Amino acid sequence: MSNEPNRLPEAERALIVSTLTEYSKRLDETGELLAALQIRHALECLDPENPLNRMPTRQGD
């Protein structure tokens, strides 16, 4: 069994990030700030460089 999580293909990740970024901008423009903030949080979670997004490796496997 692999310890690696299932990851999105890079092309799919890029499409999702692009779409969510556009949604966030549009929500900002219309004053839907809470929804925009939640989408920005989702974007942070999709960032592979974000330390919060990294899963710790299991010990003893």
Q: Which geometry do the CA atoms define?
A: elongated
Q: What value does the Rg take, in angstroms?
A: 15 Å
Can you count the beta strands? 0
* SSE succession: HH
What would you say this structure looks like, in words?
The chain has 61 residues and is an all-alpha fold. The protein has helices at residues 10-29, 33-46. The chain has a domain at 11-50. Helix 1 packs antiparallel against helix 2. It is elongated. The model has no long low-confidence stretch (mean pLDDT 83).
Task: Give a nutshell description of this structure.
56% of the residues lie in helices and 0% in strands.
Give the helices and strands, then pairings.
Blueprint: H1 10-29, H2 33-46
Helix pairs in contact: 1-2
Tags for this model:
mainly alpha
